[in-house]
Design a protein that fits this description.
It is a single chain. It contains 13 helices and six strands. The protein is of the alpha/beta class. Strand 2 and strand 3 form a beta hairpin. Helix 1 crosses helix 3 and helix 10 runs parallel beside helix 13. It starts with a strand and ends with a helix.
């Protein structure tokens, strides 16, 4: 059984899709047809099966998705009760790290790069009028055109503070460095976003995780055009300020960077 502590904007969705490939089945395909996510004349290429299954899973709003005996969930109680093989989510409960029957992994990334990637994602969604994941959308609209105000908004907002400190908060809900270090030490395998393909292949080989279809490169899970859009410039001064504000995260990842 596997638990993915998925930190936002570290390449984790691509990994999730590789696991969702194992949950693909004709019943999933039929749901896609019935709900008109795909045209009846379309075929799902093998390289798309994972992302397609992930999309179906998130839209049918069920607590798990399965293919035969392989079950994926985002709900901790289902996983705790032994009813799922793979769990993933942002801010997974930390008690799963203490389970002897569970292999855990996460992906780390340069904190400033991760936060800038988050801004690019939100700005792209804003341009498509698709900021549905924000409960206070109007507040975000006031700052989205200005990166400095956007970062300040995340940092000061009670709900989104954890997104600003996404690495630290994944392993300490209190944003405590020592607690985060101790919890991250419990992770069985740490991958690095800048070397994600090689690290992922090494992990599934070393720990005998059966994802044979993904001996190839991971597929980009998000919008392929996100880096081709025009974004407000983020100055070096702003990046330096962010680096200082994220100093605890840099201390955290430095403990595990070989």
């Amino acid at each position: 059984r596997v638990a993915h502590y998925h930190i936002e904007k570290c390449g984790g969705s691509s990994i999730n899709h590789s696991f969702y490939d194992l949950a693909y089945s004709m019943s999933i395909h039929k749901i896609g047809l019935r709900k008109k996510y795909i045209d009846k004349n379309n075929k799902i290429d093998i390289s798309q099966r994972g992302s397609f299954t992930y999309k179906i899973s998130s839209r049918v709003n069920k607590p798990f998705i399965k293919n035969g005996g392989f079950v994926i969930t985002r709900f901790a109680n289902i996983f705790r009760n032994g009813k799922a093989n793979f769990i993933h989510n942002h801010y997974l409960p930390l008690d799963l790290l203490d389970r002897e029957d569970t292999f855990s992994f996460t992906t780390l990334r340069d904190p400033v790069e991760r936060l800038i990637s988050r801004y690019m994602m939100d700005y792209s969604l804003y341009k498509k009028n698709d900021l549905k994941h924000y409960p206070s959308k109007n507040d975000l609209l006031k700052v989205i055109e200005n990166p400095e105000l956007y970062f300040e908004y995340l940092k000061e907002n009670k709900y989104f503070k954890r997104n600003f400190y996404g690495i630290l908060s994944t392993f300490s809900r209190r944003f405590n460095l020592e607690e985060a270090i101790n919890n991250l030490k419990k992770i069985d395998c740490i991958l690095w976003q800048e070397n994600l393909n090689n690290d992922f292949k090494k992990m599934i080989d070393e720990y005998s995780i059966s994802i044979l279809a993904y001996k190839k490169n991971l597929l980009r899970a998000k919008d392929k055009n996100i880096n081709s859009r025009d974004y407000p410039e983020i100055s070096n001064q702003t990046k330096n300020i962010l680096k200082k504000e994220l100093s605890e995260e840099y201390k955290l990842i430095s403990k595990f960077k070989s």
